[in-house]
């Protein structure tokens, strides 16, 4: 029987996190390009990625900043987009809650969708791991991702700053999100939530500072939850 040490758990995490570079690299590159098109310089763009490390929230905040939205609206919108991180944290607490505070603080800073997905699956496979082993795997999973996020953000900013001013790439952002979301629409509840959010987003497009998107997001979740309950009742019946 192979004994898993924190060291080997770390390298197992690195191995599981490596494939996500294929997703993170182009997304960070796109953010760097769009950020410079919006008027940020290379260092400001890098600082944005270093401080936030959340692609969807960064794109949301960037768009609102371009529209001169109040700071509180920018922060609230970015927070709303990133609320899933709170659910991730609650899910990881039984596994990592016994580790030192500084490790949990660092884990919270580098938490991304990829690190959570890798880690929670690994914890389900290895029920005998200690909190130390679990944290080592977690940090291993983000090791390939975070440096690539920083580096490709800089690369995108450098590319974007050298592009002609008339070459707009704003269309790339919605296309990217469509490509990310479409494969996740597997159940009727998912599809109902997506359709409802699209309809509400269009219906509330007049609301200033893109607050209609928050309304659409909340409405979509409500519709999805109701459809899920309806499906469960049908199965029981």
From TrEMBL:
Annotated InterPro entries: Brnchd-chn_aa_trnsp_permease (IPR011606)
Keywords from the named record: Cell membrane, Membrane, Transmembrane, Transmembrane helix, Transport
Chief location category: membrane
Organism: Seohaeicola saemankumensis
Transmembrane segments: 20-40, 46-65, 72-90, 102-123, 135-159, 165-185
Membrane topology listed for this record: Multi-pass membrane protein
Protein name, per record: AzlC family ABC transporter permease
Family to which this protein belongs: Belongs to the AzlC family.
Family annotation (PANTHER family): INNER MEMBRANE PROTEIN YGAZ (PTHR34979:SF1)
Ranges in a coiled coil: none
Keyword flag Transport: yes
Localization: Cell membrane
């Amino acid at each position: 029987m192979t004994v898993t040490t924190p060291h080997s758990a770390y390298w197992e995490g690195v191995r599981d996190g490596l494939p996500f570079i294929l997703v993170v690299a182009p997304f960070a590159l796109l953010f760097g390009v769009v950020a410079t098109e919006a008027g940020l310089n290379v260092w400001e763009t890098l600082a944005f990625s270093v401080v936030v490390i959340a692609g969807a929230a960064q794109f949301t905040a960037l768009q609102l900043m371009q529209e001169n939205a109040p700071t509180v609206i920018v922060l609230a919108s970015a927070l709303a987009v990133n609320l899933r991180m709170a659910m991730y944290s609650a899910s990881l607490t039984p596994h990592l809650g016994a580790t030192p505070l500084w490790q949990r603080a660092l884990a919270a800073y580098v938490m991304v969708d990829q690190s959570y997905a890798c880690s929670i699956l690994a914890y389900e496979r290895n029920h005998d791991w200690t909190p130390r082993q679990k944290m080592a795997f977690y940090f291993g999973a983000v090791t390939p991702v975070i440096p690539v996020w920083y580096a490709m953000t800089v690369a995108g900013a450098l590319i974007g700053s050298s592009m002609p001013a008339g070459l707009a790439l704003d269309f790339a952002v919605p296309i990217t999100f469509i490509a990310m979301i479409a494969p996740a629409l597997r159940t009727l509840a998912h599809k109902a939530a997506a359709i409802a959010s699209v309809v509400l987003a269009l219906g509330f497009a007049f609301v200033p500072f893109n607050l209609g998107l928050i309304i659409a997001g909340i409405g979509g979740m409500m519709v999805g939850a109701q459809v899920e309950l309806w499906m469960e009742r049908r199965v029981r019946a």
